[in-house]
Amino acid sequence: MTGWIDALIQGVLLGGLYALFAAGLSLIFGVMRLVNLAHGDLIVLAAFVILVVAERLGLDPFVAVVIALPILFVIGFALQYVLLNRTLGRDLLPPLLVTFGLSIIIQNGLLQIFSADSERLRSGAIETASLPLGGGIAVGVVPLLTLLSAIAVVVMLNLIFYRTPIGRAFRATSDDLEVAQLMGIDHRQIFASAMGLAFVVAAIAALYLGLRANFDPTIGPARLLYAFEAVIIGGLGSFWGTLAGGVILGLAQTIGARIDPEWQILSGHLAFLAVLVMRPRGLFPRALD
Amino acid sequence: MPLLETRNLTAFYGDFQALYGIDMMLDKGETVAIIGANGAGKSTFLKAVAGLIRSASDSVLLDGAPIGAKPAAEIVKLGIALVPEGRRLFPSLTVEENLLIGAHGRKMQGPKIIGPWTLDRVYSLFPILKERRSQATPTLSGGQQQMAAIGRALMSNPRILLCDEISLGLAPIIIADVYAALPQIKAEGTSVVLVEQDIVQAMKVSDRVYCFQEGQLSLTGRPRELTRDQIHRAYFGS
Amino acid sequence: MNGGAAGPAQSYRIETAGRVSRLVAVIGCVALLGLVLLPLFAGRYMIQDLIFLFYMLALAQCWNLLAGYTGLISVGQQAFVGLGGYLLFGLTLLGGINPLLAIPIAGLVSAALALPTALIVFRLRGAYFAIGTWVVAEVYRLVFAQFKALGGGTGTSLSPSVTSGVPGIEWIKAMLDVRTPAARDIASYWLALALMAATVALVYLILRSRQGLALGAIRDHEDAAAGLGVDIVRIKLVVYVAVAAMTGMIGALIYLQKARISPDAAFSVLDWTAYVIFITVIGGIGTMEGPAIGAIIFYLMQRYLADFGAWYLILLGTLGILVMLLAPKGLWGLVAERYDLTLFPTRRRLVIEAADSKRDARS
Question: DSSP assignment, residue B11?
Fold first, then answer.
């Protein structure tokens, strides 16, 4: 019995990580209808940036990520402004294929620079610390922080979107690009800001990715799939929905792993397909896509 | 010098030519109406002036300066605001947010919005909007949406307000309500260009009228001086 | 005005083949004959290289039909390549079926599995459809990795009895005086050539059919096409299933030739999707000539640059991005526009015959 309860708790906590992966994807799609096939690789890139900052400056990853955040915002802003803005338009193919090409470039660029060795973000004692919950069950501090961070990110994104001028601009641009221009909104800057913000969220995701497990340049695509699944399960248009989607995916994986450890990832995929068949718009859709 | 002038303004949708060299003038404080049948190019004209459709740089002049090639986001900062056809309010924004975003362009220019149109001033012009300030815009009636759209455009403190078919789909009594706002807008010094299907309304409020037919100007003059026959011919062609 | 006078009579016809394409058809037949006879004089490396070229070209034509014409941008076609490969291994190793027969069976089974797959992924649109197909491919990979009978996660190899079981190998050995491995390659070569030719022919026939005309309409403007009564869902389904069948057969052939399979290789996104997309985009998406050109270019790049490892892939990615942004119609698109060329006539032109002058109107 405790095994199942443990699986449930682990699933929810894992869901926090997946929600962090997914939040950036959800944000970008919400604002500019762009699905970034390089999203997973960008999270891995962010993890390497944090690693380099941490090692070079001798900092703990939790501090390094704070320094990495503005760096990653700028990278994201520039990437969108210089490259990805050119792909947006009525045609589906360019953004898809350009981000796909980007994914390959990032993976192999990282391979060239860092080699295929596994890396890890080290933070000392906190990595193995856990909080006992009684009944023989304990939760890891890092997974718990991951979930709490995911919730904090969702709260922050909702704050930005619904209570700030730039959030207003995000929503207006997403609603009607032409009329947004009539308001004096420079959509190229808005899109670039949104991408920069997505990179910041990706950096936070990368922190917990790197603390939790080993990472190497090739693990990006799998993260993209989890992020995507979380977004679809949760439903488009709502950050809380994305969080819920992540948690459900995490639960599906840990429950599947409980049945057979080799089935962990497959269970997640199957749960995703099941939601897709039964509720194509996701469980908590909001957007009028 | 006229406030706004177009010289030989042409516009294309892909290979299709929608405007064939329009010459138009608007003096400061004037209200100009543009009439014409569907597809005559009236909306296209407004979009070209507002920068949604690019044209030759010197085909649109604001205070003598060429703005034809500038994008819409820049043109609104120069003081030309468009109330688009069909209102096109932002469904994800509340009424108040729609108004606030209208000021986005102006806000970016300086620390304070310069000009008479503030949120309170727009609410005093359209009190019903204040009542519904926190509502999502799709819940508003047609007339209320039109008022919101006009208010949104006013929030950028435009020197020139372009209105595209603001009477479309509205009952006559609502149209009167909407048009009742026009004198106050003009009193604040805004010049207005109105595209109107409702010829009677257009003639009532404007100082001069332009008639479009198949992308070209077919008639221009002062409402009092134009005969019904003239307008009929200009509208429908011979 | 003249009252009641009829205008001059005009007749018209719909033409697809122009003069250039008729010439090209003749050249094509000659070239095909040459390719068939090639093993008589070519060395083993050339034959192996051509096998690779043929199946990559076939995969590219398939992907092009799916994405360039039908608008179904899938990044999950590796699902059917791997499926075809595993079906070949399963049918021959476990079922004792002759490999030559296993290939078409693989195609049929792929088509059968493509139906439920389509019903699921068709619920998604655009980029989400793309990722959805990727997820499905991952499911296939993970499922096959569970099949201990076929090697599980590490995979397995074909036994010599299977690889030599392709009918005609003894005949090849005798006729061309070669040893078994070379004969195997030659047999694979002819199979690959046949499969490629069949794929190109099938794609061409689909595009020239009424369905093909509908595809053009769907690609250009889906809503308008729907308004005209084009049954979009049905056409997309038919194309998806047909492409899955072809891809499955190609996958079976690929792994017959490689004689070794593993889940990671068979369902590799890089080999069966990234490279295929690259070929199609560089060559020219939405045309039949494009993938052919792209395949040749890709083959040359693989041959001479693949040793550069990660740099090579970075180059491919960068090239793909540049072409997509600067020359979205690919290399063939640039050439075709400049010289107004079509080698595979799939577009229809209206040709108006001269007016019948005897019936000119007179007042």
Answer: E
Q: How far is B231 from chain A (nearest CA, A)?
A: 32
Q: Using the beta-carbon criterion (under 8 Å), do C146 and A111 form an inter-chain contact?
A: no
CB B165 within 8 A of CB B43: yes
Per-residue HEC secondary structure of C19-55 comes to: HHHHHHHHHHHHHHHHHHHHHHCCCHHHHHHHHHHHH
CA-to-CA distance for B77 and A109, rounded, in angstroms?
Answer: 42
CA proximity to C257, closest of C55, C8, C12:
C55
Percent composition of chain A: helix, strand, coil (DSSP 3-state, to 5):
75, 5, 20
SS3 state of residue C64: helix
Segment B92-108 mean pLDDT: 87
Amino acid at C209: S
> pLDDT-derived band of residue C172, with 50, 70 and 90 as boundaries?
confident
Which B residues, 76 through 105, put their C-beta within 8 Å of a C-beta on chain A? Answer: 76-77, 81-82, 84, 88, 90-93, 97, 100-102, 104-105
Residue C226: C-alpha distances to residues A25, A92, B152, C214 (Å): 31, 19, 37, 10
ipTM: 0.91
CA distance B212 to B42: 7
A154 touches chain C (CB under 8 A): no
* A90 CB within 8 Å of a chain C CB: no
In a domain, A178, yes or no: yes
Predicted confidence (pLDDT) per residue in B114-139, tens digit: 678 889 999 999 999 999 999 999 99
Q: Is B152 on the interface with A (CB under 8 A)?
A: yes
Task: Tell me, yes or no, whether C3 lies in a domain.
Answer: no
Sign of CA dihedral A91, C343, C299, C193: positive
Domain count, chain A: 1
Query: Does chain C reach chain A with at least 3 CB pairs under 8 Å?
Result: yes
Which residues lie across from C351 on neighbouring strands? C13
In a domain, C360, yes or no: no
Torsion (CA) C233, C236, C241, C243 in degrees, nearest 10:
180
At C162, which CATH number? 1.10.3470
Residue A138's DSSP bridge partners are A132
Using 50, 70 and 90 to split pLDDT, how confident is the model at C2? Answer: very low
| Residue A144 included in any domain | yes
Asked if residue A55 is part of any domain, the answer here is yes
Q: Yes or no: say if B48 and B73 are a contact pair by the CB < 8 Å rule.
A: no
Instruction: Report the CATH number at residue A70.
Output: 1.10.3470
| A264-278 helix and C126-144 helix, angle to the nearest 10 degrees | 140
Enter the pTM of the model: 0.88
- CATH superfamily, region B4-90+158-236: P-loop containing nucleotide triphosphate hydrolases (3.40.50.300)
Domain of residue C284, residue span: 12-354
Joined tokens for residue B21: 């060299």
| Interface check A260 vs B, CB under 8 A | no
Q: What is the dihedral of CA A173, A174, A179, A180, to 10 degrees?
A: -10
Residue range of the domain that includes A111 = 2-119+130-278
Residues near A40 by Cβ (< 8 Å), separated by ≥ 6? A21, A103, A219, A220, A221, A222, A223, A224, A225, A227
Is A257 a domain residue?
A: yes
C109-112 contact pairs (CB < 8 A, 24+): C109/C83, C109/C248, C110/C80, C110/C83, C110/C84, C110/C244, C110/C245, C110/C247, C110/C248, C110/C249, C110/C251, C111/C241, C111/C242, C111/C244, C111/C245, C111/C248
Confidence label for C360 from pLDDT (cuts 50, 70 and 90): very low
List, edge to edge, every strand of the sheet that includes B65-66. B16-26, B4-13, B60-62, B65-66
DSSP class of residue C272 equals I
Question: Around Cβ C116, how many Cβ atoms within 10 Å?
Answer: 10
Helix (H) or strand (E) holding A104: helix A93-114
Q: How many domains does chain C have?
A: 1
